[in-house]
Design brief:
Elements: H1 9-25, E1 31-35, H2 41-48, E2 54-55, H3 83-88, E3 98-102, H4 105-108, H5 112-119, E4 124-129, H6 132-145, H7 154-159, H8 161-165, H9 188-196, E5 204-208, H10 209-214, H11 216-227, E6 245-246, H12 249-260, H13 264-276, H14 283-294, E7 295-296, H15 303-312, H16 314-324, H17 328-331
Helix pairs in contact: 6-15, 12-13, 12-14
């Protein structure tokens, strides 16, 4: 029996459209900003979200860092636990957009590179490195602010590492005990090798924080060229995640307990806030109290401590310089260490 001319075309086109639509809805990121944190990753992410050819709907899903599943982080949206949940984050991408995500913890993670490669071996990877002492000092302040760390003294926090490897000296309520092993964050060559072992060199872009700070626009254009999108679209520079310090550790602990609803007093206060204020405004009063009473601008770091940290990680700086073919020893003034 013969078919009428063109009778199958509408059905075939509909099927193809459905398949294409399904594939689009199930997209995974085409590129990943993997870290480090406190090295310009958030500013880079915010600038890239302005580009019409890119789709970065959600910062730090953390999906591929399975180490974080040991304890559940206190975030209302949670962490996507299945690939389907993770894919759903990017379902809003237009067909002509390149999809990306930024989870700075992926560079620290021992599992993320392999897990990303398993589902997107063609993905592009952006890594940013910062001078070790300034990186760790800034990271420590962030950990104290977010209550991952409770030791507010930088030198003492670093000195606790041996005890913490044995499970001692850890903050009682921290949800990231592993990240308090500060030396693990400065295994720069090992971290980069995990990605270069799984992704071709042309798919891995290594940036240096100093370049981004010195010339925001030039670094962002380098990323846009790497992603093969229009580098001439103007993007507004942003300043995010300013470093702050904790003014009062005890008040910070109280405010944290209230915000997460821990203990009878905190539960009562949080319950009263919930009963008296709309959902969108509940965090406002606590946030304003924190800003005014708990946090302030940090004091300059102790240069003796910073130099001790630099001497400790000088070998890593030399190794990274050789590995990426750039003189970071001179850039970061490690040639002047005594």
């Amino acid at each position: 029996m013969s078919r009428a001319p063109g009778s199958a075309t509408p059905r075939l086109d509909t099927t193809r459209q459905a398949v294409a639509s399904s594939a689009l809805a199930a997209r995974l990121p085409d590129f990943f900003i993997v870290g480090h944190g406190k090295s310009g990753t958030t500013a880079l992410y915010e600038m890239l979200t302005q580009h019409p050819q890119l789709h970065l709907p959600y910062k730090e899903p953390w999906f591929f860092a399975s180490e974080l599943y040991e304890r559940t982080p206190p975030r209302p949206e949670g962490i996507p636990r299945t690939l389907e949940e993770y894919r759903a984050i990017f379902a809003g991408a237009a067909q002509n957009q390149i999809v990306g995500e930024a989870s700075p913890i992926y560079l620290w993670s021992r599992t993320a590179a392999e897990r990303i490669a398993a589902v997107r071996s063609d993905a592009r990877i952006v890594a940013i490195f910062r001078e070790p002492a300034s990186f760790l000092h800034s990271l420590h302040l962030q950990f104290v602010e977010s209550y991952i760390e409770t030791e507010s003294n930088f030198a003492r926090a670093l000195a606790l590492e041996d005890e913490r490897r044995l499970g001692r000296g850890l903050p009682r309520y921290t949800y990231w005990p592993q990240v308090l092993l500060y030396s693990e964050h400065v295994r720069y060559v090992e971290q980069l090798r995990r990605y270069r072992a799984l992704f071709p060199p042309e798919q891995v872009l290594v940036l240096v924080y100093d370049d981004f700070r010195r010339d925001n626009e030039a670094t962002v254009k380098e990323v846009l060229r790497f992603l093969e999108v229009d580098e001439h679209i103007p993007l507004r520079a942003v300043e995010v995640n300013a470093t702050i310090s904790v003014r009062s550790q005890r008040l910070h602990e109280l405010m944290h307990a209230i915000s997460v609803g821990r203990g009878p007093l905190s539960l009562a206060v949080k319950g009263a806030l919930k009963a008296l204020t709309p959902e969108k405004l509940r965090q406002g009063p606590l946030r304003r109290v924190k800003e005014r009473l708990v946090f302030n601008a940090p004091s300059p770091p102790d240069e003796q401590v910073m130099n001790e940290v630099r001497r400790r990680y000088a070998g890593e700086v030399h190794a990274l310089s050789e590995y990426i073919g750039r003189d970071l020893v001179k850039l970061w003034r490690y040639d002047a260490l005594t």
